[in-house]
């Protein structure tokens, strides 16, 4: 159960090797979470990550998870609930970021990645939401991106999947309103980390730790959307209004 | 489904709210809830004055016991009242006081039900003399998981698992308890100020026993040499000769109600410090024999309905602990830490506890209890309170379940030595775990 100051007992992370995901889980465990399930492809999570979480006092379970196989997602959520008990926080943190140039040459790969970045989150999100609604409480953390707030020429395959995900998450949050469960939509800008290795950071970029801290702060409050950094919100209020002719010339 | 929170308005969860109108309907609901495939259980709820998640049951059923018709009978020969569990102490006092009787124990609000008073084994300003509610309880009727109604008395283990058992042994539907004869509806009160915490403890230790009702309000915003300065309010029921007019008149006025939209942050460091300074400043150094009504003496906050709204949308956390006599250093450490850290606590109350009851999860033990009212959202609050937990446990103390909304399960297990004994009796009465609450889940009861 979530307590009055926002500490929780259980966490389910889907995309169990995700850097942002693990950073959030680490903070939740430090804050009192005692049971964790990491769902990762092949059921493999680096041993040092497991040791680190266990050293902080958590009971850690690992299970196999494939974001591209939606037919397995309902069972996975059931398995997590059977292992952990009530799911206090569910974090689908899986995703792939390919280059737009590569997608242009390989439409099939683009469709596969969109199926993971959007479709995988839809099946996981709905399966988790059903469980949260039944148990009458819990938070689904959806890692959206400013890339989906206004899709750019430079990464429109990735961006359009995030746009779909963001819309899905808002709709799901509204659907869960009054059920005791909620959806927290996280909209980070450029995140410096493993996923963006080798790329030049965009303006207002943040680190994985900054994102995780912002998510923790939002989990403690009743926020429904969190921008990281917060100043991206007014920035995008303006950027949404830019004429297409200018927007399409954005370098990245 | 209905979203429910405790009085602190934190951590809402949703549940199906049922409103049984009789003990038979309670039994029928239990059978329905126990049906296969509906595994989220059930908990009784009274007037929702527990601060945390004691009367919430996420995804399950919550029995609104205020739907049980309020009823009571007074046996003036025995000095006993039998009341349905949904009857509020407010209703009881409105009826009993003009007849010359007073409830044996009242917490800081009259808006609690008899069932809730038993489930939390509530205490009041007379604890040092009269112990808690359970000590005055002659019998109770409990509808258990099998749907049967059992009449229990102080010789039954299940009775003492139910007193302070937070509703997890069954649904209390009726109770009989002794009452206190009074000559008047007024209180004779002595008020005095102390300079610091040591003087507060000293005055209470040496002279509390002269009064039936005592409490100290601490100005937590005072720092340095004035840390822990307090206003002591102590009194007894006034006698016939001390009051004018109808000696037993008691007709509480309709209440003001706090508006639903109170801006967040209204109770902040500046406003609370200002309030405290005025409150301490206006109290006399010493004033004896003041005649006061029941509401200003026992239930000052009942004058404002829904006063918890004043804490804004993020709500408030109550932190109430007790440490045994001899552990005054722990108390000093908590008070000085709160003062030094400038933590805002709107109402900070210190009280001396006397003997406890045999209730296995009953909170009071002989010692000092401190209650803090803290708006949530203050930076570092979670860590600070977790540190206090450790000091309290190390001193042999514990936290009050009716107030708690945040303690870790490990602290509960370390501080209630009779928890396993309670669990064994609960498991025998409720083998399938029908009675569940968010508090029970959070604390792994």
Annotation keywords:
heterodimer, A: 252 residues, alpha/beta, Rossmann fold, seven-stranded parallel β-sheet, two-stranded parallel ribbon, 9 strands, globular, B: 445 residues, alpha+beta, Uridine Diphospho-n-acetylenolpyruvylglucosamine Reductase, domain 3, Vanillyl-alcohol Oxidase, Chain A, domain 3, 2 domains, eight-stranded antiparallel β-sheet, five-stranded antiparallel β-sheet
Report on the architecture of this protein.
The complex is a heterodimer of chains A (252) and B (445). With 252 residues, chain A is an alpha/beta fold. Chain A has nine helices and nine strands. In chain A, the strands form two sheets. Chain A has a seven-stranded parallel sheet with strand order 3-2-1-4-5-6-9, with helices on both faces. Chain A has a two-stranded parallel ribbon with strand order 7-8. In chain A, helix 6 links the parallel strand 5 and strand 6 (181-188). Chain A starts with 9 loop residues before the first strand and ends in a 5-residue tail after the last helix. Chain B has two domains: 67-182, 2-Layer Sandwich (Uridine Diphospho-n-acetylenolpyruvylglucosamine Reductase, domain 3); 186-406, Vanillyl-alcohol Oxidase, Chain A, domain 3. The model of chain B has no long low-confidence stretch (mean pLDDT 93). The A-B interface holds A 1-7, 9, 31-32, 85-86, 134-137, 178-180, 221-222 and B 1, 3, 8, 10-15, 40, 52-53, 57-60, 313-315, 317, 376-377, 381-382, 385, 405-408, 438, 441-442.
